[in-house]
Specification:
By secondary structure, the chain is an all-alpha fold. It contains 18 helices and 2 strands.
């Protein structure tokens, strides 16, 4: 196929995705007096991640970058308005509130566990090492596939940008593979270097969104400013459930703060602070910018604007209110936005493999770290080989990189991460609810229970409308999601075998593991 000839490919990015998991271990006395689980002692020949390397602001950069705000807005806002009409801003606000509720229990657990496995550690604490092992491999599969999809998207948009800006014809496959190798090198370097790169790229992509907002608001929008989008009466619409599929997708990845808990300064405070900041930044950005785009379009002409190419909605409105020169900059920044997202996913994937190796679920060699960088070395290399191999395999096929490869690899990420969030909320109730570790009833019971209900509803809607993202029927969607099931079963089996041979001895203190069999 000719990538450059497809107008959809030039202006339609995809959502994000994210999450991760790993194990906890022997308790140490925390400042508050409540028990805290630390990572298991590393086997001989393995390394430890660099402690006290990143602060809360670094974590925010990692997390918000994985959500790719610019590509999310540019690529999905048109579809969101088609599905939800003028209530789209409320859809983002509701999603943000739901994840803020989830963050209550999630961050409460982070104060008692420091482990680059995050979801894995939390689920193990609540339901035992077998469930935790299954969750760990499922999380890795979800993140790895998400990275493959975003790397393919980065390749597509880089190819288009090079053609438009420099007149160079480079295949999306070549662009994706080169960017994948560059990202692997950045991830191998000190974690703070990657954080600095993400800080610059994230500032640019969010900055250009707010530049558009300033111009639109200064000119009063197309037909004045209105807050009807936030009127609860307007939420009573049959399409609200389908809209939630889009809005909940945009927050995937915020939970990655806990992955860096072993590398964070004062993680008991840093991880919760960064998590709430990340949810807040994403909620404000998505809610506010979607409302600004609605004001720029004007509710009365929104339908006519969407009748053409809905993926061009934001670009066309930016041409109208800001100017074509700034729109060209915006299209370049979409490439860097994808690049930043892939880097965030790569960091998450390599740290999952690191944790799986350290806990004995996968070969211990994966737990080795670089001598100077203290980042996952063997895990990073293995993860790079797997991702590059999948990209190369997809590149040899005739599949459309945007409508097929990206959609089919991101669907498992979305479903897998939300399923892990639900399991984590239940694990919070089971672990903190019985341990009396000083958390309030809201933190250990009410908020996690509410998050379980809200996220289960969102997951049900996503599964119901998954064909909207994949273009497949029930059988096709089941095949696309099958790697999650395979990953869970494989992880559970490996955890059970490792437990029998003493390979997973340091996950959680015996009196707090839950059911290990």
């Amino acid at each position: 196929m000719n990538d450059q000839s497809d107008p959809v490919l030039t202006r339609h990015p995809l959502p994000t995705a994210p999450a991760a998991t790993a194990p906890p271990a022997a308790p140490v006395p925390p400042a508050s007096g409540a028990a805290v689980t630390e990572p298991a002692a590393a086997p001989a020949g393995t390394g430890q991640l660099r402690p006290n390397a990143v602060g809360a602001h670094h974590l925010v950069f990692f997390v918000v970058s994985s959500a790719a705000p610019l590509t999310g807005m540019a690529g999905f806002i048109g579809l969101a308005f088609i599905l939800g009409g003028i209530v789209v801003p409320s859809g983002y606000l509701i999603a943000g509130i739901t994840y803020a509720v989830f963050a209550v229990g999630f961050t409460a657990m982070s104060r008692h566990m420091r482990n680059s496995g995050a979801f894995y550690a939390y689920i193990t604490a609540g339901f035992g090492r077998i469930a935790g092992g299954g969750a760990a491999v499922l999380a890795y599969v979800a993140y790895a596939l998400g990275q493959v999809g975003f790397a393919a998207a980065a390749g597509v948009f880089t190819s288009l940008m090079l053609d438009a800006v420099a007149g160079l014809t480079v295949s999306w496959q070549a662009c994706a593979l080169v960017s994948g190798l560059v990202i692997a090198a950045l991830s191998y370097s000190k974690v703070t270097i990657g954080a600095r790169v993400l800080a610059v790229l994230l500032t640019l992509e969010i900055g250009i969104l707010f530049v558009m907002a300033v111009f639109v608001l200064a000119q009063g929008g197309h037909e004045g400013l209105s807050f009807a989008s936030f009127n609860p009466v307007n939420l009573v619409t049959p399409s609200i459930g389908v809209l939630f599929v889009i809005t909940f997708i945009m927050f995937i990845g915020f939970e990655q703060t806990a992955i860096y808990s072993e590398e964070a300064r004062d993680p008991r405070r840093t991880v919760p602070r960064a998590t709430y900041w990340s949810v807040g930044v994403l909620t404000v950005t998505f809610t506010f910018i979607s409302w600004v785009i609605l004001m720029a379009a004007g509710p009365s002409r929104l339908e006519s604007l969407l009748a053409g190419d809905p993926s061009s909605l934001m670009f066309n409105l930016n041409d109208e209110f800001v100017g074509e020169a700034m729109t060209a900059v915006m299209q370049i920044l979409i490439v860097t936005s994808f690049f930043a997202s892939v880097l965030a996913f790569h960091n998450a994937g390599s740290r999952y493999l690191f944790s799986l190796g350290r806990e004995g679920i996968l070969p211990a060699a994966l737990a080795r770290t670089g001598g100077r960088t203290k980042t996952p070395s063997v895990a990073g290399i293995v993860h790079t080989v797997l991702v590059i191999g999948l990209l190369a395999g997809f590149g040899l096929t005739s599949l459309d990189p945007y409508t097929q490869i990206i959609a089919w690899t991101n669907a498992p990420t979305l479903v897998g991460v939300i399923a892990l969030e639900i399991a984590t909320s239940l694990a919070v109730i089971r672990f903190l609810g019985r341990s009396g570790t000083g958390e309030s009833r809201w933190q250990r019971l009410i908020a996690p229970a509410l998050a379980t209900v809200l996220l289960s509803g969102a997951l049900g809607l996503i599964l119901w409308q998954l064909g909207l993202l994949t273009g497949l029927g029930y059988a096709g969607n089941a095949l696309v999601l099958s790697p999650l099931l395979v990953g869970f079963v494989a992880g559970a089996v490996r955890a059970r075998r490792a437990g029998r041979t003493g390979g997973v001895g340091g996950l959680i203190p015996a009196q707090r593991t839950g059911t290990d069999s």
